[in-house]
Amino acid sequence: MDDCREAGGGPEKDAAGYWMCRVWIHNAGIVVLTRSSFPRGFPVSVAKISEITATSKKSFDDAVSSGISRANKTLRGITGAWVADQEVAVKNGKVVEYKVRLKLTFVLDA
Fold first, then answer.
1. Which of 37, 76, 77, 81 could form a disulfide with 18 if both were Cys (CB 3.0 to 4.6 A apart)?
2. Integer-rounded Cα radius of gyration of the chain
3. Left if phi > 0, otherwise alpha if psi is -120 to 50, otherwise beta: which for 88?
4. Residue 95, Cβ neighbours under 10 Å: how many?
5. pLDDT-derived band of residue 1, with 50, 70 and 90 as boundaries?
């Protein structure tokens, strides 16, 4: 619960006596996913954010799909992804490659 205070949230008890903390704590790519209401000492899930780059000759959508598909072969528990950056490679005035930088969130095994 000290993490809540450090992140500026501060724990509170709800009507049922459960501790509440609605703060995501970001530290070196680790995110603590707190539940909105949980008993004191109840374990929370820990997620990791990993950054990957994927390319496609077809489209940005295809680059995103292929990147997630490839990452899923080595990372368990992927729960989300967002596109951090996009760029294209141009040759002779035509787009020849689509590139995305993805940030993937996955829950670490307990």
1. 37
2. 19
3. beta
4. 11
5. very low
**Residue that has been written with the tokens 């528990």 in this structure:** 77
Instruction: Check: CB of residue 65 under 8 Å from CB of residue 59.
Output: no
* Phi, psi dihedral angles at 73 (to 5 degrees): -75, -25
Q: Is 54 exposed, middle or buried (0-12, 13-18, 19+ CB in 10 A)?
A: buried
- Sequence-ordered list of residues with C-beta below 8 angstroms from that of 84, at least 6 positions apart, any chain: 51, 101, 102, 103
CA-based nearest residue to 20, from 53, 47, 45, 42: 42
The contacts of residue 87 (CB under 8 Å, 6+ apart) are: 99
pLDDT digits (tens, 9 = 90+) for 56-100: 999 999 999 999 999 999 988 888 899 999 999 999 999 999 999
Residues 83 and 101: their CA atoms lie apart, in Å, by 6
